[in-house]
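Record pair follows.
FIRST:
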Amino acid sequence: MILNLLLCLLQQIQFAEEKQEFSRFPIKAGRRSLSRSISQSSTDSYSSAASYTDSSDDETSPRDKTQINSKGTSDFCVKNIKQAEFGRHEIEIAEQEMSALISLRKRALGEKPLAGAKIVGCTHITAQTAVLIETLVALGAQCRWSACNIYSTQNEVAAALAEAGVAVFAWKGESEDDFWWCIDRCINMQGWQPNMILDDGGDLTHWVYKKYPSIFKKIRGIVEESVTGVHRLYQLSKAGKLCVPAMNVNDSVTKQKFDNLYCCRESILDGLKRTTDVMFGGKQVVVCGYGEVGKGCCAALKALGAIVYVTEIDPICALQACMDGFRVVKLNEVIRVVDMVITCTGNKNVVTRDQLDRLKNGCIVCNMGHSNTEIDVASLRTPELTWERVRSQVDHVIWPDGKRVLLLAEGRLLNLSCSTVPTFVLSITATTQALALIELYNAPEGRYKQDVYLLPKKMVTYNVKLVTIIYPFLYLGNFTGANLG
């Protein structure tokens, strides 16, 4: 008994000493610092393709700054040119996984197939895109670049490109006005006129048609990556307003069967985890669209135990979803019970305000298509609804009855806005884009009319051969374009 009392007394004395030692430190400040550190590590550091800095670091608009790179030029507009060294490291890491593009750069370096090309581009500005841009420059092109998404730019990568001499106008967190200003700065440069367009979504092409239609007299071709942009090109072609040949990269075998499928299969989970920390097992999820993007998303969610529903208007894709083990439904049948709504269609108003009103409390809503119009986000900006920013790229939209819906990236592309994407798969798409530019730029007059084309099969084959360089164990036998079927 006495021994037990002595032990208790010693423990109380030890606890009192530890408490006194702990009280020497500023508890309140320490806790605030820890909380801020956790918050930053879970949002800022990992949002928008793992950018080193969040757009909130400096509230001053890059448009209001005067920045000069080490070469003494200022023909760019980025968040902070001092981040260039970090961006260069990101690009070097990406190069390790982009074997196809690096192989193309090395093989065509001596020929300079893009010598004299003046390419204006509007794509996501990430480390992977930077490797593409620098490959185009190495092959002889002059490039001016802006971002196709206001949230996907890696600030440090944009800085690295500006430091290398590329005229880049982009930063994470642009406003709508900034977005169009950056595109205009790329096009409207005194003494410089583009002769090629590389677009992702069709906004650049739209702006040229709207503001500078005379430029098309010297444009040799347009290369478009996304389904949204391709739809816009076909609309122009149908209306007889397409002035130049255009290459549809989105529907090429290498884009559809690799980037759209495998890239989204891996990045959908990454984006959802980083923004919401959600557990997928047992969750009811509806995926709108069962194209290649939808297939990738559904496969990933199913593998982690989610109960997946699919909505699809194309009977062939709907049958595929059914045969893959998913229940094909109408959105209105499940809108009240699902825990997540994911759009993957490339269309607009897929999820309407009426359907958003019927979602249950805590439902997560996001988009994996290119355009931010798949979810009717504009209808949510009304006085009766309250928006509350809870994390970077995560908003609570609060209804009058207290219901909260989690909207990710304001309805914009989830994976590139909130996480990262697999570099290797992007290398295949980037190589397809580069080959399409080379083909259109060097094609003899008359080969391509004012219409939309797919990349010639011989070039698709060449792309796949470049990819397989890193797979020495892959036996292709007598590999020809016919094998791509």
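SECOND:
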Amino acid sequence: MAASSSANGRTNPPKGSGSAPGGTVFKGETRRDAVHRVAESELGTDVVIDEELGTYEHLYDTAEFDGVDSKHYLATAFVVTPVDERLEPDDQHALLETFTEPFPDLHPYMERYLRDLEARGYQY
């Protein structure tokens, strides 16, 4: 099983599609410190980082800035275990749910994360 958050449309991916919690790494912050901060903020609990899954390119045909028609993210995915089993999503996530294959309405980028987890022997 894997956990997914359904986006409320504040950020990419589009509203209603499955996504993973995430965000920006602040200046002077390590990527691992950002994982802990984002987990606390978006999931309401800290996490144990099990491993780094990899870095992924995300290309979108939309942007938040006038005069810019697209954006390009470099996202580093981590495999984590929540410290507390009770997750409390913040307001940018409509819900948190677990699922198994076939994946329901997941953004292709999220599906890639899950396929890479499977290739490493993780079961969901």
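COMMENT: Confidence is low (pLDDT under 50) at residues 1-9.
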